[in-house]
Amino acid sequence: MDWHFVFSQALTQAIGPTMLIYALAAIGLNVQFGYTGLLNFGQAAFAAMGAYGLALTVVAAGLPFGWGVLVGFLAAVVMALLLGIPTLRLRADYLAIVTIAAAEIVRRLARSTVWAEYTGGSDGMRGFSEPFFAMSPYSKDATWSFGFVSMDHGRLIVDLWLFDFQYSDRDLWVMTVGWALVAVFLLVIGLLVHSPWGRVLKGIREDEEAVRSLGKNVFAYKMQALVIGGIIGAAAGFVFALSRANVQPDTFSTDFTFYFYVVLILGGAARLFGPVLGAALFWFLYNLFSQSLNQAIRAELIPSSVLSGTQVGPLVFFLLGLGMVLLLIFRPQGILGNRRELMLDVR
Amino acid sequence: MSGSEVERREAHQAAVDALADVAPEPGVAKPDPILSASGVRRAFGGLVAVDVERLEIERGTITALIGPNGAGKTTLFNLLTGFDRPSRGTWEFDGRSAKRLRSYQVAQAGMVRTFQLTKALTRMTVLDNMLIGATGQLGERMWAGLLPWLWRGQEAANRARALGLLERFQLADKRDDYAGELSGGQRKLLEMARALMLEPRMVMLDEPMAGVNPALKESLLDHIKELREEGMTVLFVEHDMDMVHEIADWAVVMAAGRVITEGTPEQISSDSRVIDAYLGAHHDGAAR
């Protein structure tokens, strides 16, 4: 078995473009669910707003890339307002019901044949990412080597002997932008949750009636949290669309949202770095399990009568599900969470 | 005799004097009401929970709102503080119509309530529970949250005030504990201290003694008397007649959604209507 390959793959993916999508979406969810207690089950739809807002603006409307980003963010804000105005005055569960339904409506609209000439229907859209990669400072022809870091025709290799990181020039550009977005959002959210504004959000999470009795306009705060989380969700949608150079409606299904929740709870909700750590750990474990199982099958350590290559994917998700259950039993607060806080008698 | 005790007696005497000439009748006019309600009615389907023709609360007094279970006391509280909407009726708080105000606006206007089931913000520290109560915080605006230097001064001032109040309510050494770690009685104290962070003119306490152990009761009573001494008006819901006798200047009795009588605690406890309301009209006493 090639353990070097297994660990290299797992670690490469732990900080790679895919992980960044989940980290960003979960940062948004952290503002809504972690700090404010809003059950947004439609984060996938906010990501779809970003992805489709960008793709439609650039491809269907033929506008510049920057406009696409602006439209994506605005679409997320509009969606937050549309979902929030009718539901945020009601009990918490209504937001959950409405967001999960709205996310399905968005996906079905995106794949419907009515606008297929613009949206591509269930095939989705491509051809919007060229302007983004044209901005990349990384060259396809770069070849150099410096110590353990080398560049081979645009492919970055960081060789740390036991394992290595390898990224294509396109991955590198997506990661540069993605990590910059993570840094900016973490800075903003970090400042906000440590301000009196963030204190009101946490109060709302604990008991919104109490916060109302203390003279705070709870509805306005919840709306602000929903909008901010949605904007960050749209940013996740940009990274998603650009890293794959296409958008497909069925990738924005409800399981997408549930993986964001897994990532958030794994890292620790209401902890600033929880979503980032959770996303990194999730993709590390996912790749560790699938690559080592694949390697074991290839080396015939696991006979094909027991497990075949096509069964690895479902088995890994089963294992991750099991891990999630164990986490909730033994460490319900997540990796970064505070157990003392969670064990309090919530009356 | 200590200074504060003198002040307490003076505040008490002022309240007694203000109400001395007020007749013990339901809906009677008071010399200087801070809160006056007319025709307030709340029906849930066919059930009329509250139907108060007229109610005035005298400024600077401690008024008890008593009555049997289901009399509509808490519903009236919810209506007056904007936590529920009436079917009809109007009321004024400190000369301003308060009927259309939302719950948070009522609190901003200076009428702050507590809850029957204490609402401590469990996974926040005691100090954060206090700080969230301060009004007019610039840092509570989202954009200002990003610019800490704009609100640091205000935050420090609020913090000092919060610590002072925690000191007074014997919670200062608990300030960094989670509110969820406090006992039931301490939560009641915290809720009252937190209400004072808003610098209210009127405090509405919904069953302040429920679930409080006897040792803490005395100190809670003293705290309520101190509110009057500081010029606040207190309206509280209570079942315990002993407590009403001990601290209330005036008592309003509700039954089946209506104010059936009001008066000083002494006048109330000799009123047969009150006994009827509590024990039912067909008890032995009523037959006589």
Q: What overall geometry of chain B do the principal axes of the alpha carbons give? A: globular
Global outline of chain A: globular
* Distance N to C terminus of chain B: 47 Å
The number of strands of chain A is 6
CATH homologous superfamily designation of the largest domain in chain B:
P-loop containing nucleotide triphosphate hydrolases
Question: Pair with the most extensive interface?
Answer: A-B, 32 and 43 residues
The DSSP helix count of chain B reads: 12
- As for the number of domains of chain A, it is 1
* CATH top-level class of the largest domain in chain B: Alpha Beta
CATH architecture of the largest domain in chain B: 3-Layer(aba) Sandwich
Describe what this molecule looks like in 3D.
The complex is a heterodimer of chains A (347) and B (288). With 347 residues, chain A is mainly α. Chain A has a single domain (3-340), classed as ABC transporter involved in vitamin B12 uptake, BtuC (Orthogonal Bundle). In chain A, 67% of the residues lie in helices and 6% in strands. Chain A contains 15 helices and 6 strands. Chain A has helices spanning 3-14, 17-35, 43-60, 65-87, 92-111, 116-119, 130-134, 169-193, 196-206, 208-213, 218-244, 254-267, 274-298, 312-330, 339-342; strands at residues 125-126, 144-146, 149-152, 155-159, 164-167, 246-247. Chain A has a 4-stranded antiparallel beta sheet. In chain A, strand 3 (149-152) and strand 4 (155-159) form a beta hairpin. In chain A, 49% of the residues are buried. The mean pLDDT of chain A is 94. Chain B has a 6-stranded mixed beta sheet, sandwiched between helices. In chain B, helix 1 crosses helix 8 (214-229). Chain B starts with a helix and ends with a helix. Chain B folds into 2 domains: 3-120 and 200-287, 3-Layer(aba) Sandwich (Rossmann fold), CATH 3.40.50; 121-181, no CATH class. In chain B, 39% of the residues lie in helices and 22% in strands. Chain B has helices spanning 3-19, 73-80, 103-109, 126-131, 142-145, 152-168, 184-196, 214-229, 241-247, 265-269, 272-279, 284-287; strands at 33-44, 47-58, 62-66, 88-93, 96-97, 111-113, 202-206, 233-237, 250-255, 258-263. Chain B has 288 residues and is α/β, with parallel strands linked by helices. Classes of the chains: A mainly alpha (347), B alpha/beta (288).
